[in-house]
């Protein structure tokens, strides 16, 4: 894994499997990101690239996720979908005996995944529980949160499907599962026993194992989950700017959050990727270069972002100068 340094041939030729995040990558809300569905289908049909959908959203079953994707035109089935609910349930089954009672602070689809691994899920607040699993649940009654706190105070294992603090919506960002996990943790003064979703390894590893991928690439819009998750399991990644990550956040990314490639959106699977060249303290990408703290050149603005980012990471241009340079060529940096 080398962040923005190495050029690549067409990604769909270089990698056999795309591990696709969904929110902000394939769709936002109910609608597809323009140009992405056709490109992904072409990557599969023309180059044989396996499309595997890897989502931290635990509120919907693989069948429901696949149905939504099919309605958008993506050629996938439920077998091509791996969710943090599946990964969380699988990890929970390693912590407690078969037939154990599990309090599910989450949707019916999350409860179903718990049942499929041989455990007994319930929302009943009159039972005694052996464990708790928590996932994104937009319709959660507040009384369930209160009962969950009482369950956690007994010391039972607690699995969180993910720690996403926000989720993208058509009107902006909204609170994610991580906000509720954090609230509960602060209330009862403990942390989850295990987190299944990205950036932790269970969900990503389960996705790789299921597809038997030899050369997988993660395609995501979040540094803290998708890119960090790829780096945690040692595979390459493509960060797309169609979701929640800003150019300023890329510039400030620590090494563990840096992607291999950068693109405007996931249709980039059909294109070759420019690398950066550093020589005599000049950082070049495509038609752009950073010389003595100045951005010079012309061409695809994405190459300008790449050149400036690498130059900033190497201490050749300050953050303020980098932001001003990129804003100066018409880019929204925040």
UniProtKB/TrEMBL annotation:
<protein>
    <submittedName>
        <fullName>Unannotated protein</fullName>
    </submittedName>
</protein>
<dbReference type="InterPro" id="IPR006357">
    <property type="entry name" value="HAD-SF_hydro_IIA"/>
</dbReference>
<dbReference type="InterPro" id="IPR023214">
    <property type="entry name" value="HAD_sf"/>
</dbReference>
<dbReference type="Pfam" id="PF13242">
    <property type="entry name" value="Hydrolase_like"/>
</dbReference>
<dbReference type="GO" id="GO:0005737">
    <property type="term" value="C:cytoplasm"/>
</dbReference>
<dbReference type="InterPro" id="IPR036412">
    <property type="entry name" value="HAD-like_sf"/>
</dbReference>
<dbReference type="GO" id="GO:0016791">
    <property type="term" value="F:phosphatase activity"/>
</dbReference>
<dbReference type="Pfam" id="PF13344">
    <property type="entry name" value="Hydrolase_6"/>
</dbReference>
């Amino acid at each position: 894994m080398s962040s923005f340094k190495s050029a690549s041939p067409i990604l769909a030729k270089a990698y056999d499997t795309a591990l696709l995040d969904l929110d902000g990558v394939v769709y936002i809300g109910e609608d597809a990101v323009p140009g992405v569905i056709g490109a992904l289908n072409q990557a599969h049909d023309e180059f044989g690239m396996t499309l595997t959908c890897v989502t931290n959203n635990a509120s919907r079953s693989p069948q429901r996720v696949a149905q939504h994707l099919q309605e958008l035109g993506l050629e996938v089935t439920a077998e091509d979908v791996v969710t943090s609910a599946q990964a969380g349930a699988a990890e929970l089954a390693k912590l407690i005996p078969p037939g154990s009672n599990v309090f599910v602070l989450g949707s019916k689809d999350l409860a179903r995944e718990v049942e499929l691994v041989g455990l007994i899920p319930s929302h009943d607040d009159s039972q005694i529980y052996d464990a708790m699993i928590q996932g994104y649940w937009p319709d959660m009654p507040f009384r369930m949160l209160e009962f969950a706190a009482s369950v956690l105070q007994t010391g039972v294992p607690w699995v969180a499907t993910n720690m996403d603090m926000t989720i993208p919506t058509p009107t902006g960002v909204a609170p994610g599962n991580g906000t509720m996990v954090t609230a509960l943790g602060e209330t009862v003064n403990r942390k989850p026993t295990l987190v299944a979703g990205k950036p932790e390894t269970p969900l990503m590893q389960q996705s790789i194992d299921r597809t038997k991928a030899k050369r997988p690439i993660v395609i995501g819009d979040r540094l803290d989950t998708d890119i960090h998750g790829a780096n945690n399991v040692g595979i390459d990644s493509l960060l797309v700017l169609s979701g929640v990550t800003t150019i300023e956040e890329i510039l400030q990314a620590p090494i563990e959050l840096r992607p291999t490639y950068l693109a405007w959106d996931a249709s980039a699977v059909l294109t070759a990727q420019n690398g950066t060249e550093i020589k005599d303290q000049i950082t070049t990408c495509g038609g752009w270069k950073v010389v003595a703290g100045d951005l010079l050149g012309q061409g695809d603005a994405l190459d300008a972002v790449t050149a400036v980012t690498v130059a900033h990471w190497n201490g050749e241009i300050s953050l303020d100068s980098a932001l001003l340079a990129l804003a100066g060529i018409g880019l929204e940096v925040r």
